[in-house]
Design goal:
- It is built from 40 helices and 41 strands.
- The chain is an alpha+beta fold.
- α10 packs across α11, α12 crosses α13 and α28 runs parallel beside α30.
- The N terminus is likely disordered.
- Component of the oligosaccharyltransferase (OST) complex.
Length: 1402
Amino acid sequence: MKTISYWSIPSPFIRSTRSLCLFCAVLFFGTSQVNNSSNGAVHSSSTPIGFLNQIDPTLFYEQHDSAKKYKWKGKDTLSHRVFIYFTMRLCFQYDTKDNCVRYMPGESDADRDISHSNLHDENHHIVVDRPVITQKSFDKVFIPTAYEDRTPIVLVGQIQSYFKRKCIPSKQCGKSYLKVLFPFLSWLKIYELAWLPNDLVSGLTVAIMQIPQGMAYALLARLPAIMGLYVSFFPALIYAVFGAIAVISLMTGNVVDRFNAERVSATLESSIANSTANDGSLDPEYAITIATTLALTVGIIHFILCFFRLGFVTSFLSDTFISGYTTGTAVLVFTSQVPDILGLTLKRRVGPLNIVYTYIEIFSSLKKTNIATLVISVCAIVTLIVVKEYLEPFYKKQLKKIKLFRTVQIPIPIELIVIIIGTVVSYAFDLNGRYKVKIVNTIGRGFRKPQVPALVLMPSLIKDALIIAVVSFAICMSLAKIYAKKFKYAVNSNQELAAYGLCNVIGSFFGSFASAASLSRTSVYVNTGGRTQAAALISCAFLLVIILQIGSLFESLPKACLASIIIVALKGLFLQMKDICTIGHVTKLEAIVWIITFLSTVILDVDYGLILGIIVSLIVVILRQFRPRTTILGQYERSEIYKTAKRFSNVHEIPYIKIFRFESPIIYFNADYFRESLLDAVGIDLKTGQHRTVHPKQFNPVCSIATCIIIDCSSISQLDYSGGKIFLQTLKELNDCKYKIYLCNLRYYNYDVLEKLEMNQVCSVKVVATVHDAVHDIQDDLMENNDQAYNHENQASSITIMHFSLFCVFFAIAIVTDGQEQESLFNTKVERALDLVSHLPKETITVTFENRGTKPARYYDYYVEPQHVKDVAYVGAIVKGKNSDDQGALPIKQENTDKTKGTMYRIELPHDLRPSQTLTLEIEVVHVHALRMYPAEITQSERQLVLYKTNAYYYSKYSTETQKTRVTLPTDRAESYTQTPKPVSKSEQVITYGTYADLPAYSQNEIVLHYENNNAFLTVNNFQRWIEVSHWGNIAVEETVDMYHSGAKLVGPFSRLDFQRRQDSLSAVKSFKMSLPASARDIYYRDEIGNVSTSNVREMNDQVELELRPRFPLYGGWNTHYVIGYNVPSYQYLFNRGNQYILKMRLIDHVYDDQLLEQVTVKIVLPEHAHNIEFYPPIYDSNVKRLPNEKHYTYLDTVGRPVIVITKHNALFQHIQDFEIHYTFEKIMLLHEPMLIVVSLFALFCLVIVLGRLNFSIQNQDNHEFRTRTQQIWKQILDNHVKRTSFYQKLDDALHAYKTNKDQKAYSEQRKKLENELKVIQQDFTGLKSKIQADDKEMIAVIEEFQKLAEEQRQITQALSGHTEKFVTGKIQKQAYTTEEENLRGKLRDINTQVSTILNQY
């Protein structure tokens, strides 16, 4: 098989073609010999003879064996080369220069090189010479290996070799395991001292970043700030030893921090639901316990995943899902930081709709905003943004100018600077004491004691830990793969799981919460030149100094600074929202995954967002496999390349062959779809065995009716049992319908599946190697059948070719004589009616003509005299007569204007007019500005006279047998008229010219008519029509009209009295009627002054008649201006199918009788966001022009509404026709303007709330708020007093019971329990004192007095308890005990009296 050979040409066809080519060659070139000598005349390759000189006959016969037996006998003449050229082009379809032709005609070397370089290099060609490879020949040539042998003996041997290789201890095995367990040994062995400066700079830079960000993320997780430094230290230190990626900085990432914070918050909220605190504060120790237990659980899950080698699970989390999920968590993180930015104390919420409730509480608490905190937040955010976005790029650009820092980029530590400045300012001005700005408070120094997390909490944290483990590992692995490609690392996902598990497990014992990789700090590692994990060790050493010595210096740091750092750090995550546009352009399904994941994360919370996002991602994957793509392939220019036929214009389907490709594995859930797709592609209905109906535009009778089907199996990567059975069943059904099936590019394991399912017994199918093999085999079979047919019909073919040769001769003669055109049409009868009643002369010509030629006539040419060329505004034609097949308007095309003959209008007849046939046409012609006022000026009482010149004969390019002209005047008053040529007669208003006989072509005889015409000479010089389309059910139409009276101008004074006396008013126009659509409503009519109330509206069945009466009558030369507007329902003019809309309306309406609109401008305003706009003018009006589109802005428009602008000159009543506009409009955009209103009102509502509730002063609160807070504090004091009184009562009862039963153990346990309760009460008093420390000094003194009395009461109670113990144990006598007890109880009564006095005062 050669790729340069396409079709085997049957022998009879070669002989016949040779005869034809020989005949043509002898006819045009004779027996001229080829000029091969260099001294002879040289012909250009662009001429036919020059081209034929380039043909190489020897090369042609060498490459075509089938042409050798018909080799030219004789001299090498031009006829010989013509034969070769025609054979090559007609039989072998060659157009490449390397086969037989050195140069193509009319083609330069540059053009030829460009045309061949489009597909391949002109000096490099692929020539394949091999037989067609079927499965049988394949099995003979290719010898299979034993690699796929899965017999039990081979499997046992492979298992034994695996265990020998992996499980037998050896020195080499031990070293490999050590490198796996301790990856730092690999880089430590090759570490160079030259790397140390880079690692040192990198470690210090990252350590500086970790100080503020670690503290901020600890705040985000509702943990003490020192915990952020712990999680910056321990995981990074552990990962430096066990991690494999040298550039990963293990630190709490943004997303995992938010996730961890939500999980910690949820557990804490449920655990302290009965707490009496109202500010949402939590026990720090308990929060640390839950956070460390969560980290331990996450680490254990990582270990379990590593043990079961499940590092691949993150492959199911797509980049689209991670982008939408992290963007959603960024919104939640931002929301959690808003209270710290505003200085509010809110209840932390988790669960579905928590963001909604949070913002409701934020807006309701805006009046409590701490202005000092807000100022600090704004200053910090502005500083961070300015430095990061503007100063840092300039700083890095300047830093690169220094040779030392060209490869090392050190960022500005702006976060650390903000923290230092915030701490100094807070400490210097006592922001916490004076303005109640929240600060970090106690940070502490040193490390916590190693503690075992609360294992009892692990069962309740497993669900949350599993989610954190999967998401954190997915983020870490995606980051690891990015930098592994850059630094050529080998990433082992299971090894990374082990490293992350160790980081979380070991870190949990030292106070670290769950951690993950951070993109920002990893990028800093890379940009600052970090080479190995030594940079992480240096960073940890610097952090160690901070934790041990410097951490306590940041206790005065405002929390607003940390919240600002977090918010600015979220910029990168928020910018991921732009991904939705890119993803949407690539694939809509992925965009749906992003949107659902984002919305579910924001609205429902992070855990639900994760679950829904994964579910939707899996559904998308299943849908793509359930409904994969199917392709119909075509051949590229008869080569071995097969591409999608619909995708490329130069790729065409092969006749009678259907090449089908299924772009997916065929498994149980998509096998039925494969069957349906294949049957649809073939176009067969199995029930009837007939071909299905195909759309006429898509129907190709050759390509659609296929007899052979080629299934390209290159994209079928798998066949399961169910899919294989349906696959073979489909092939059998096609065999039953007489289709021949070929399978190509079938993979060996799929072939084994089909063989095991007994493919050869179920169906008849031929398996070949490639698509081209199948095509070539089919074509060989077709050619064999054609050869047999040609052998039986050899004689008939020769006769056919002879007839074809004779046809070529006659065709050439016809071409030579084609220029001698013979006129064949003859006007047998013409009746011409000229209507001069109005100011627009109308000609109605009824012409009957006959075809007296020998060939059919398709057109009738109508001519307009040269003197009337400029005043013709309309030409139309219809067929007249009982036997007419088409009564509609005929297509008319205006040809070029000849100064001597006039303008020709070519009328296309409804059918060919055969010889001796007749046809009657009615031609209508309307003239504008053809009447001349004579006289040009008249007074108010004079009559209006006009002068009109025309031709007495019918002006035609054809001879006319009989013709008559009838002129109708508005009245019987004719001042004068031409009375030649005879006969001429007049009867009242009608003047008749003729009958005239035997008129030659282009006959002319001018006649002049001078007559009275007082009808309305109204002309609109400017008509503007505004059509505004709304998809809410209405179309608004407004027409602006500038009208003038084009009759004889009025001279002299105008008398209103005379006008009222004479109601006829001669030529004055008092009113006119306008027709509107029958559904028109809300009609208005106004001019420059305002609404005109003199108009009348009359509703009719098919229209609305509007009588317009101007404010003053119109005389010659007078003008008026008015506006007409109305609304119509859109359902009568606007039609749609899905998002495709069609607007069908009139270009103009009936403005007045015998209307003339000199300049018409129509503007159609479509809805905003309409696109793919196409304008279709009226069918028979070629003078409509479309101008460039405009934009129209009205209320609530954002991008503007598209405006289609259309113009036309000299529009008449006959031009009232429909136009169409096709456009696309997404229905969802109907909500655009309502949503704008809703969002605007919501923004206004929020603004009003902010302005109404926000206090812009930095002074203390007003008296009302002070009193309210004081009352709340005193209420808490009373509650604590009641609790303390109850405590002393219980203690007293315990003393009496002790004296009675003398049970020392029971008494001690109860006393210890009561003392713990007393300690809690005392702590609550201390908290209340701190709340009012800056509000009321008097109240502080009272509380201090209260605490003093409480302390005395506690001491007396302890003394009483001790005295009672001595009495029970017998250390003192009863008399002494009684005396001392009365003394102590008297003091307690005095204290209670003082306390009651204090409480009664408030």
